[in-house]
Structures are given as structure tokens and as C-alpha cells.
Fold these 3 entries.
Entry 1:
Amino acid sequence: MNSDFEKRLQEQRRRKIPSHWREEILRAARPQPAVAPWWREWLWPCPRAWAGLAAAWGFIFLLQLTTPDDPATHQGGSTSWQDFAILRQETEIIAQLSGDEESRPTPLPPPAATKPRSSRRVKQAIG
């Protein structure tokens, strides 16, 4: 069967390929240079995630630049009971030195001791 087909092909006249087809075929067969830059290939697996991450880092960087670098903010910022006690002592000393007994603040009661909490639920019978 193959021999009959081959014989018929050999008997046929060859037609000339149109020149514009030949140019298109040869142009498509040439290796194309890599157009994508290296960073695009690196980010290709998930470009939206990389863009979101870059935007978040940019936002953090802008916040870092715009916030003042104040040493007082780096000390923790929370006021303790000791700070209040020192402030109260200072105001009492100033009141004693000024001789004004009426402007002396009344001492604050000590903070109440924290009571233990129970997460146990109490069942109440109604009726």
C-alpha cells in the first residue's frame, strides 16, 4: 500500500510555493529573541502576589519615613503605678513647700487586688 502511494506522489508535478508564504514560514521558523526582561521571568509565578508584597513594603517604608524619631516613644510608652506614685509625691512636696494646704491633693486609695475569676457556669433552676 505504501508503495502505491509513493509511486503516485513521484508522478505528481511539484508546485512552486508562493513567495509571501515562504517568507512567512521562514520568519516563523527563526528563533525569536527573549523579549521579557529577567525580572519579569523571576516574578512570573505569581505577579499579583509580588506586586501586593511590594506595595505593602512601600507603605511600611513611607510610614517609617514620615513618623518622627522621638526617643520618648521608644521607652515603652505605658505609664506604670510607680510613675503615678512619684508624680503624687512631687505634687505633695510642691504643696508643702508653697505652704498651701488646700491645694494638696487627697491621696488615692491603693488599687484593688484582682480577684480570681472563674469560668465555671452556675446552673440555676427556675420554678
Entry 2:
Amino acid sequence: MMRSLYTAATGMDAQTKRIDTISNNLANVNTTGYKKTLTEFEDLVYATLRSSGTADTQGNRLPTGIQVGHGVKFAATEKVFSQGNFEQTEKQTDMLIEGRGFFQIMDTDGQIKYTRAGSFKVDDTGRLVTNDGLPIEPQITVPDGTEDITISKDGVVSFKIAGQNNPSEMQLTLARFINPAGLKSIGDSLYEETPASGAPTVANPGDGSMGSILQGFVEGSNVQIVEEMVNLIEGQRAYESNSKSIQTADSMLQTAVGLKR
């Protein structure tokens, strides 16, 4: 059987997964805090028909060999944590991280998860929570009677309470990772730590290389529609090219089968 049939099939499978990834990026173009995903490929094993450097019958060393590849594999996907667009909401509980870092979220399983989506709400107990009701960690609770909330760049959350001259304050902290691309996406705009990401470093916003907080803004998706559409067209054409390779191999086999003495 011709290798090209299987080789081209691996190309079609790889491009299918690439288009799946691009489609997910486009679907999340308006998702707060979403980070686009890149795809990476690797070539498969080669059949070595002749090794380079071997000597021929005359004793001359051949400068090149003969290797035939067996296609491509979908090797990895990687999140790109470049800064997304600044979107002003003017909501006092909305926050944007300008620079590195993640908000820490207490999940229902009691484990800390991480997010770049800073669209927070106040629940019935006064806690700042995500759209799914998960509280921010360390817990930030809005006192009863609060008239105004101010969040500084270094994460100090101040509450102006009716009848009190001095505001009540709480400190927000962020987490950063040496390899954020190693975080695992678990949906709901959340990530969880993995051995590849390394352990989190927790610090106040603006401390060292940690990003600062911008109140009244949220971070938009970093997906560039034009770039993704170009990638989508490129992936479609690559898929069609691999399909054409299969058709060509099939035509060659049909010719070979039809040979007569």
C-alpha cells in the first residue's frame, strides 16, 4: 500500500484539530479574560532507506541518505498570555490585571483555581464572587452599609461605610507562575496548577514583577479576529492539499491495478 495514503491522512487529521482550535478561539473572541490557543505540530517517524555517510561499492561516502517521512502529528496546544484589550465597565467590583498575575478563586472542591477574568459580583453574604458564585481568595467581603468601594493599583480594597470617617480596608493578592502556559484550562475561565506550570508565587499587586490592578475595567480576549481568519483559511487549504494527495495516490493505485500485459 502506498505510504502517501496514510501520510496525507495524518495531515488531514492534524489540520482538523488545528481548525478545531481556531474555531474555539473565534468562539471566545468576546470572553472576558480568554487567552488564545496556538497549535504546534511535529513530523512523524522516518523510514531510512539509505543512511547518509555510508560508503558505496567504490569506497566513496555518500553525502546524503534516503529517508521517507510518514506524516505529521498534532504535538501541543499552548495558551498565549499576552495582555488583552482594556474594556471599561465603570463597575466598582470589576478589576483588570495590568501585567502578570492571576486572581485566585476558591472552587467548590476546596482547591484554589486561577483566572484572568476580573468581572466580579457581590453575593448575598457580601463576598466578591465570579459569575458562577465562586469567591475570590483571599476572601473579600463588602461590609454592610458600604457606600463606595475603591481598589488601588496595589490591591488595597477600601470600603466607605455610612456613618464612619475611616474606611475599612482589605488586601487583595495575586498569583503568578514561572510557566503559565503549563496551566490546565478547566473551563469557566479558570485554570489549575500543574507540575508543568510550577507552584504559584503569591504577592500583592505591583510587587516586583506582579501586575497591578485597574478598577472599573475588565480584560478582554486577546484573540485577533483577522489573524485567526487567516489561520483558518491556511488550515482549510492545507486540509484540501492533503485530501488532493489522497486522491492522487488513489488514482495511481487505480492505474497500477488496471495494468494489463
Entry 3:
Amino acid sequence: MRKPSIIHESEKLSRVLEIQLGGKSLLTPTYFPAVSSYGVKPLFQDLLFFLKHHKYPRVLVSAYDLYNMKEKKREEALSLLKSYRETGFLFVDSGLFESWGKGDKSWKMKPFKSILPKVEFDLYSSFDVYRTKGRSYEDHKRRTHRNLLESSVFLDDVAFFAILHESSPTRLVKLASEIVEEHSDLCRNVAVAERDIGKSLSERAETVVALRRVLHDKNCHLLHILGCGNPLSMLLYSYCGADTFDSVDWVRLAIDPSNYLTHDFAHLELLKCECKVCSEKPYSRGEYLDKLLLHNLLFYQGFVMQMQSLIRNDNIEGYAREHIGSKIIDQINEY
């Protein structure tokens, strides 16, 4: 992957980048709706087909889910993803979220590496290493580096993300700083889980600022926030320098475009939304689940384009103050 082009840099550490992969172009900040076998009711294959059918331009899937499919279903999914990738961007992560959620301790580096060559993708991540109780920082750092080295087998024409985990935001920034310093060739792009970057919104935003500064100092590129789909969080983290996001929120919640708040899955009809999915008859006559998913996808697509426009016009700080509040923005600006 060649270095992304900087389209515009704006307030705090926000920026719009252009990523070119496989003859396709992607602008940041952007959002990847995640398709997962854990924590959502719709079937993995049904969600994939839904995104392909409606031509949504980005998707994230897990290597774990693909590996654990029955052979016939896997071949169908791989064929669908190959067709999807002709115009859309496919991000493959390791799937440790799914394996831990299901209590499956058999998911290791070997099966992860065995499934990757069977998938055609644009972006992919390393195999995660969680910090476990009793393991020293140095041991965790060595294991992280080893997994980065073993995972980075496809570096030509794709974007490789080094996933970093730690037990506190301070330790995460330290790990990122040292790993990037010592192994910058493996850390051109970094991904961190939202749950690892702090408990409060302001602490998380400060961690994003610290990580972006680390990456900037080492001439690294993209910062991805795993498991982040809350619009207000995405807005603030983009202001602080994050580039890409993913989550299963699009399948689990109903998003109110008027105030960016999220609601219960069943509450779409309470939002009084006037987007085309909620207001035009061809959509209103469809199944509720299809309508909800389309509503959310339409929101995310418009929202990331809006953030890009705000950054290009140097208006993202004012917009963040309006929707998040000046107290947090002032705190971030002093950090």
C-alpha cells in the first residue's frame, strides 16, 4: 500500500485522506459496517448478501467467521466477497472478538494464517494479542511483535493494520510508541479497540490524540478504532486524528439522524425520521429489519461524507462544540 494522500488537514489533528487500493479510492474519515457471527441476530451470510445487494461500498468481516463456516457456506461467502470487492472495500480482521465472545480458545495464529490466502481483501489486521492477567509488559510486547511479524504476510497492494491492546490507555500509548519506534515497517497503520482507550469520552479522545501524535512522529499512516460506531464518538475521534472506524452498531441499534443518538433496535418508528428509507413508500412496505439496516447504512454514509466536508471547510471544531459541548473540546485542545 502506498502512502495515503493528504487532501486537507484541519483543526486539532483532523484530516481527510485519500487511500488508493486496487484501482479504487477511499476517503477518510470513514466507517466499515462490521458483519459478525457474535452479538447480532441476523445470520452472517444474510448480512453479507444484504450489503452486496445494496452496493454499500465498505464492509469488515472476521477471519474467524470465515474459517469456521462449513465448507459449502464458506465457498459461497468467499465468492460473494470476491464479487463485492470489485467495487467495494473489504476489511478482514482476525476475529478475536468473536472467538473470545464465544469462549473459543482454539482460535490461534495457524488457522488465521490458513484462511487469509483464500480471501481477496483490501485491508486486513494482525492477529490480536490481549494483555492477560499476570503477564508482564515486556512479555506482552514481545508477543505483540511476534504476532505482527507472523501476520504481515500480505503487504503488497493491501493495507495492513497492526492491532495493539493494553490494559490501560497510558500503557497502550507506551506500547504504540515503542512498537512503532522499533518496528515501523509493521506499523504503518495501527488499530486499537475503543474499549482500550479509556472509560470516559474525554479520556478516550485524549488517547486518540496521543496515538495520532505517536504515528505522526514516526511517519505512520492510518489510525483505526475497532468497535466504534457511535456518531458522536466518531465525530470527536475524527477531530482528534482517527481515520477509520467499524462496529456492529448498524445491526444492533436505531440511529437518530437529528441528534446522533442511538436507540433500541425496535424504536425506529419513534424517531420521526424523514430520510428516504423512512419516508418513501417503496421502503416503508418492506420488512422491518431491512428498513432498519438501510436506514442505518444511509445514515453512516451521509455522516462520514459530512465529516469529510466539515474538515475540508475547517468547520469540524465548531460542529463538535455544538453537538458534544465546549467543555470537552476545550479540555481536548489543552491536551
